[in-house]
Amino acid sequence: MLLPTWPAPSGVFSLMTTREGGVSCPPWDSFNLGDHVGDDAAHVAENRARLRVHLPAEPAWLKQIHGATVVDVSSDELTADASITRQAGCICAVLTADCLPVLFCDRAGRVVAAAHAGWRGLAQGVLEATVAAMQVPPSDVLAWMGAAIGPDAFEVGDDVRQAFVKQHPEAAAAFVPHPSGVPGKWLADIYQLARNRLNHAGVQAIYGGGRCTYNEAGDFYSYRREGVTGRMASLIWLG
Hints:
- By secondary structure, the protein is an alpha+beta fold.
- It has helices at residues 41-52, 119-124, 126-134, 158-165, 190-200, 223-226; strands at 12-16, 70-72, 82-85, 91-96, 100-106, 112-117, 141-145, 155-157, 175-177, 185-188, 205-208, 232-238.
- It contains six helices and twelve strands.
- Strands 2-3-6-5-7-11 form a six-stranded mixed β-sheet. Strands 1-12-4 form a three-stranded antiparallel β-sheet, with no helix packed on it.
- The two termini are 19 Å apart.
């Protein structure tokens, strides 16, 4: 498991799992926490039980749809790509395998949130929506970016580039032409794109990033690398 390095206030707890330490068989080996990727349900249940030992409660597992909806973890409707809570012991969680997980808290340690930011959700404003849902001044928000596909592996087309650049022209700096030289192919830096979006939302205290799910096969699942694969979890809660 990864413990985020960021100046979260006392009483805020967070972690991101890796692919190690579970019971799932290949291609989900071994600590797969996703129950929607074809893995044996008993293996997923055992992996989640192993995670649960480190947590004060069962996480509020979302049904993620690559959108920008934010819900409170106490909601009966958990079809969303981000969640928040102000209640101690309630756990915000997102599952990823190349998409960017972002954890949030405020400087006072009164509200926490987790967001799943694939490129579609990122372009739709899931990070901005999460910051707004926290209902604190953006200058008081801290954000931590977990492991995602890195800038030398995230191949995208013109449609993805245009989706960001038409909203914020400076996002063009997050794209470089693909080394193949094929017109319309780019390498994208999802970390830089997320920083741009957070900065526009007024968040300046941004930490993490720099890991690559695609290239670090021993530690992370990668959908783009493997197709059929598991999911890591990024979680945050108030103690």
